[in-house]
Structures are given as structure tokens and as C-alpha cells.
Amino acid sequence: MDTRTRGEAIRARLADIGGNEPGPGERALLARLIRSFAGKTPAGVDQLGELLRGGDPLAVRDHAHGLKGSAANIGADTLSGIFAEIEHSAGSGVIPDADLTLGRICAEQALVLGLLGDLAKEFED
To answer: What are the Cα distances from residue 91, in Å, to 47, 57, 94?
Structure first.
């Protein structure tokens, strides 16, 4: 999925939440939602990295599940998919390689957070 497609998926999800032409209240809500995701996700990914290195498949599975839901809620489908892969793998008792997995997550997260930063500014204007 390219950056444009990612942006379209995120915009579509936000339109589901706030409507196609959100008013001031909806715009403020969407901006808060975006800022919350952008503020919490990097720390959640850091914690996932610790769990991946810690070797507890159930903890990895549960944490990846929460991150997957957060990413899906904002429309970050590719990021959500990566977390789903981790959740599934850990649920099967296999912990993915921490460095490789975190590399994928961080690359995708950077794209998503850049898109969300632009969208948040739009909603805050």
C-alpha cells in the first residue's frame, strides 16, 4: 500500500467517525483522536519491543492485539496488519524477530504519523 492509499484509508476511517463534513465539534474530536494515537503509539511500540525481547508469547500477543485495535480505529490498516501478524504468531507460541519486526513497525509508523500530523493540522485549523 503506497502513502496515498494509506492516507485515503485513514481519511475514510476518520469520515466514518466524524462525517464527511465535520463541524467544529467533530473536527476537535478527530484532532484529539489523532493526537492521542500519535502520542501513545510510539511508547506502545517501545513496550512491544521489550516484550518481543522478553520472550513471553502471551504478553506479546496481548500487547500486539491492543496496538492492532488502535491502529485499525484510526484507519492505519497496514500498521494494524503488522500488529495482527505479530499477534497471530505470538498466539501460536512463536515470537517474531524483534529487530526485524520493529524495523517494519517503525517504518510504517513513521509514514502513518506523518500523515496523521498533516490531518490533525487540517482539523485544528
So the answer is: 18, 7, 7
Domain limits, the chain: 3-124
Q: What is the DSSP secondary-structure string of 18-86?
A: H-SS--HHHHHHHHHHHHHHHHHHHHHHHHHHHHHHHT-HHHHHHHHHHHHHHHHHHT-HHHHHHHHHH
pLDDT digits (tens, 9 = 90+) for 66-78: 999 999 999 999 9
pLDDT of 58 higher than 80: yes
- Assigned CATH for 3-124: 1.20.120
**Dihedral (Cα; 104, 108, 110, 113), 10-degree rounding:** -150
Q: Kindly give the interhelix angle for 77-91 and 57-74, rounded to the nearest 10 degrees.
A: 160
